[in-house]
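Researcher: Go.
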Amino acid sequence: MLSLTPNPIKVLDFYDDGENTRHYQFCIQNPEQHLAPWLKAESGQFFMLCLPGVGEAPFTFTALPDERGLFKALVRKTGSVTEALFRCGVGDVIGARGPFGRGWPMDSLTQKRILVVGGGCGIAPLASVIEQMLDSQDFIQMEVVYAARNRASLMLNPERERWQHSVPMFNVVEDVTGLSESEYYQGTALGILPKVLHTFGEQPDRVLLAGPETMQTVAAEYLVAYGIDPKSIFLSIERRMHCAVGLCGHCYLNEKYVCSHGPTFSWAELLRYDIAC
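Model: Structure:
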């Protein structure tokens, strides 16, 4: 029987990581009762964060739940739920439901050339993919593009610092004031794509995109024109997901629900169902 009752989770820690953005670590309480479903979480899936008396909102995992019930999420203050979370302190207990949706095609990334492109908060659903691939080293080549507006809006700073020691990182910022020219390119994710693709030699086998939907759409169109199969390009789509289980219809796109059929779709799927961003 479907249950919409949240599991209790504790706020273990958090730190500011970008403008009005915090990186949180949570812990699932009463693991003997609640942990099993969370251990099945996949990169690219999401969960519903529940603030009693306030409401719910969907967030992606930046670190998947482990055997101790620990997981992480990047949260930007944008509404009543996130404002209430920002008022919480370490040790406070709130709620969560999940995991939900369809994640990234991890099995298809093995021994492939992978291009990862994240814009703004879009780096969040890509973080656990990058971590998993770096842990396994089961890829031929992986390069990461991260784009932001300015210095204040940069996110996942500790993670990106660590990643760049293992794979090529293209950090791109529209306004580079106060940033090192040796570490940041000036421009946009779309503007840097020709340079990045040139470094691959052979074209990427898989492309993972997340961020503003306009950016994802234009990037996908560019990559197809470059010669990459639409079935090999994957996007993470955001919509208002109120129930997370395909009941409320708020995330309905043509004949699909983003919460249950996504949030990850191949570009070929989006074109076939006429729900391209």
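Model: The helical segments are 31-38, 80-87, 124-136, 157-163, 189-200, 213-226, 258-261, 267-272.
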